[in-house]
Amino acid sequence: MTDTDKPRFTLRLVLSTIGPEVEVDDPSLVTDKLVNQAYSMVGTFLMDALDDLEPDITDERFRELFVELLYKLIYKEMTILHLLPFREEIAMQAIKEGKRYYGPPKRRKGDTN
């Protein structure tokens, strides 16, 4: 592997409930093209959402809100990753006991969580 083919970063998630580490360092999983598309989509989404709320937003404020949105998305996904093993354990226990596992409540129309 040449220097230009190496990944620019390594993502390590430490999830103590399911194992020591999960490593993602395959550069083909998330390409620069995909990152640029996602970046553009999130930026466009945020700008559309802010048009009604803050029509005179500054570039600095937009960047702050952009980073805040990304952190909240990351936090939400990490929370889900953390809870999945527990939910699976509860479901398996219910199956062993012959009960039906109902899982988390379904989302209601208009619910943003």
Cα radius of gyration in angstroms: 20 Å
Write down the overall geometry. extended
**β-strand number:** 2
Beta fraction of the residues? 5-15%
Major sheet characteristics: 2 strands, antiparallel
Number of helices: 2
Could you say which structural class the secondary elements and strand pairing correspond to?
Answer: mainly alpha
Brief synopsis:
The protein is mostly helical.
Walk me through this protein's architecture.
The protein is mostly helical and 113 residues long. It has a domain at 30-96. The chain is 53% helix and 5% strand. It has two helices and two strands. It has helices spanning 32-53, 59-96; strands at residues 11-13, 22-24. Strands 1-2 form a two-stranded antiparallel ribbon. A hairpin with an 8-residue loop joins strand 1 and strand 2. It is extended and about 60 Å long. The N and C termini lie far apart (43 Å).
Give a topology summary.
Layout: E1 11-13, E2 22-24, H1 32-53, H2 59-96
Antiparallel strand pairs: 1-2
What descriptors fit this protein?
single chain; 2 strands; mainly alpha; 113 residues; extended
